[in-house]
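User: Fold both of these, please.

Assistant: Here is the first one.
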Amino acid sequence: MNQVSFLYLAGFLLAGFGLFAQNPADQIRLNQVGFYPNAPKQALVVGKNFENFTLIEKESHKVVYKGKIKEAVKSPFSEKYTQEIDFSNFKKNGNYILSVEKLGESYPFEIRNNALSNVAKASIKGYYFQRVSEDLPEKYAGKWARKAGHPDTSVLVHANAVSTNRPEGTRINSPRGWYDAGDYNKYIVNSGITMYTLLSALEDFPKTANDLELNIPESGNNLPDLLDEILVNLEWMLTMQDPTDGGVYHKLTNANFDGMVMPDKAIQPRYVVQKNTIASLDFAAVMAQASRILKPYNPELSSRCLTSAESAWNWAKANPKVFYRQNQNNEKFKPAITTGGYEDNNDTDEWFWASAELFVATQKSQYWEGIASTDVYWLPIQSWNSVMPLGAFSLLKARKTLPSFTANKIAQIQNTVLQQADEMVKDLDKPLFRTVMGKSAKDFMWGSSSHAANQAMFLLQAFQLNPKKIYLEAALGNMDYLLGRNGVGYSLLTGYGSKYPMHPHHRPSIADGIDEPVPGLLSGGPNPGQQDQCKYDSKVPDESFSDSDCSYASNEIAINWNAPLVYLAMALESYYH
């Protein structure tokens, strides 16, 4: 065969069977961490003409299970097909590999009783690596040890945040907390949903929380390590309330984002900026929830949280339409602030959430008014700027302890949650990756990974109301999505799985000189918006991902993204282990 003919044939084969030119492990999409013996176990192979698979014991390479691969399903977003591999009937603990006939072998994985305990621990420990104002010594941080950054003991009150007792330039003490994302600032609004989700994990799965030892400085102090980590941010949030009037500052921030340097090298002046209604309501909701959950652990702090919550509520009532508008502020006040805006145009959901948490905590009628007047016939999947579901979930958890006059409204909310959960789990044999995540192109947004985890958390709320197995299994399917059964073939949690993001948009991971990124951080995931203008290999919604530290639109990390992963992993450990 001459060279031209050979090249023509090679081109034809690659065009017709291009999938075979990929790494077989990349073509077999599965949870790269582990499966529970008595839970569903599914994987997918990208393609449409495969017939047989075997399950192989990793060490001995012995075949332990065989099966047929199911019919192909076509992507609604591209020309891609996938076929399902189901090995749910195999239940023996061990380390395994899937092999697809005429293709090759998958990444390895485990089957064991506590299959996701390491994921649960890592996703909580990720917050330790985000701590502000303290050293991370090698004893706890391993090779990612670093010096403290941002003591935040002399934070300036910005010109847009002045009050009678705190004129411009007043210095306040606001240390600790967590860096919000890949940057070094701290935001009340994004802390809101983060704290709700972590406190809910502690409340809903206390035994699992007690079992998770994280090797953090507070370990062994008779509190769950998860609670110790929550308190780091709770204590910071309390410093963000103006003690003279109860209003809450929007964020603690530099004027501009820091460069790609380690925290201790970032020394720009820090500011608290404008008190506003939404930040105050988010704060009120978190503090009311914390007052309830912390009572058995620390009654004094519980009482302080409730007092702070009611004070923030009163400020919001007196200032009901004060919104943070960064560009408008920058036209009037200097220095200009250009860090994350977290601006929200709709406060209906924040009023509902704060009302719900304060009512559950106090049962005062003044808080019920905002709940009773709000119809809850539909709920979005929760996010930092859509927090009505959080109030709904708290009311449902407390439903048996609430006064009888709440019954009709609680029934309406419960019906809404269950109806939406039923809709979410319909036709799960049809999506490309057989998961709730990805049934619609709209699922692939900025922070799509957290959307998958929040979908699962929504389903788990339904499962707590009505323990239908499909709700739990669909939540597990979204965990499989996050750990590798997805359109990009990555486990999206740094440090976990065989193929995970190595270059997240995360300043310490970029600046520390260590090849591996800080572990336990959930990457944002596919986002066809591609707002960062970085290089992507695809614009297909479920494939639009770039493992590049340039890509803040698809590969940043954030505290509100890790939180539902914590909740999901703890739930699955609780129900399946």
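And the second sequence with its predicted structure:
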Amino acid sequence: MTSAWTALGRCALVTVLFISSLASAANYERRVFDIPMRDGVKLHTVIVIPKGANEAPILLTRTPYNAEWMTKQKESSDMRVLLEGFDNAADVIVDGGYIRVVQDIRGKHGSGGDFVMTRPLAGSPFNRTSVDESTDAYDTIDWLVKHVAESDGKVGVIGISYNGFTTLMALVNPHPALKVAVPMDPMVDGWRGDDWFHNGAFRQYAIAAIHGSESRDNSLEFPWDSTDRYETFMRAGSVGELARQRGTDKVQYWRNIVEHPAYDEFWQSQAVDRILASRPLQVPVMISHSLWDQEDIYGATAVYQAIEPKDKTGRMVYLTLGPWHHAHAIFDGSSVGKIRWGHDTAKWWRQHVLAPFLAHHLKGTPMDVAPVTAFQSGTNEWRRLEQWPPAQASTTRLYLKPKGELGFAATPGAMQTANYISDPADPVTFVPRPIRVDDDGEQWEPWLTSDQRSSAARSDVLTFTSKVLDKAVSIAGEPMVKLMASSSGTDSDWVVKLIDVYPDRADDPGMSGYQLPIAMEIFRGRYRKSLSQAAPLEPDVPLLYEFALPDANHVFRPGHRIMVQVQSSWFPLYDRNPQTFVPNIFFARPRDYVKATQKVVVAGPDASHIVLPVTQ
């Protein structure tokens, strides 16, 4: 035992000497402060300052993901290596000479106070206190410009995902020192199409994040009972029952979700695009959106549409649409899943768009950045645009037709339908099983680009395919679904997918016939009349379902075909619709889940179609 303690002592001495040596050789200085907010709560803040910095701007990120970890992801004397990892565009930060600041938000890691998921605005019905993420950002910036001597008094905010939400909240009542904001893949509206719901269908994958959300260090893990998530959700029945079994029903944010299944005031008042639309535009913003974002595909473009009309000079609101999955822009962007772009698109964007944009607003250097920088898949090239969608975009209808055909001309004559049986006992999966619990992102991150042939082979998925294209079809913007359909049930989900079918390719057998999703979305039928009020469907009566697919910027090339798939489940990513109208699907009982005959109108004056935003 004595020799063991002696060895440990020697190790400790070596460690101290090693850290001391790192500190003396480092090209940065790392400082830690607990910054007081207006209500006395202190927020843990890490500041990394380049050696020799003087009159340098600050880049701030406010996070629930651990400021200590984000600013020391690798032990190194090199600031670039130190910051390399999640939510640090280390090349841009270091090459730009910025002071890097990362802060734990309230109730997380080293910060005081309590954590509230996407904390509502202070003084609102859902936050009776005097503080929110906007006031905390203001107080933090005020402290930084007064206490960081190496700073020039200019601050930029930047962040991905939840950090994108906090970035946007800093714009609600911005501090005068805030000169620029870059929200990337931000959480914006948890009901319309980001983390928690998509058009009323609950993304039950989120239960794990919600389950651990109230723990200070995010360490409370959801107790899966199988390595295949499909099994866990099916065994429980409803996701509400699963929450009860696992104790998630005791988490306050889960109770909020369950109590507000429709798009009521709870969600509308917190939608950040709505909040920013009601306030003056005071800070230049560049919004970064990932075209295959599997977590927050709605928010970025929603914020752009909300605030771009306020930009009277054309120099305040910028948008990027990149060929990435969630949080991909700071890593290698050469591919998503099996789809390769021909170059590192993320590195190109950081060098040619992000870096000059930040430098222009924080250091006064000239920039040549277009109002919209949009990657066009199909041609795999970046496009410089004046607005999004492009001014030259027009619309055309892509019709679902009998016998599984798809085309730009409607089928005349009497109404015809294409039918299938939707069975909640055998739901369509969003990726082939097994759907792994711990996959290190391998299955989850690229799934929106995954080959859809596994779905096309099912009898409960309608597949409509065009003839081989003899000329390119280019789309830029938001495809709109106009689905005329009936269900024998009193509730139903509708999933519509717009797909690029690759030709047979002898040179690349792995991509031969590949069905690449371009835009896919789900809509919960009970909200057909009103997003804020559920209502049962009229059984066996054709009804119109109108909803948007996510934004796309794609060219269907000659030799390819266009495909549309329609189905009524997308499991286990989304909870199953019982297809019987119940007051709250979270509490659907086993007997509520019934088969339904689904009929999609494919001919006649009301034929189903997608309105495509086409460009030349």
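The first strand starts at residue 28 and ends at 36.
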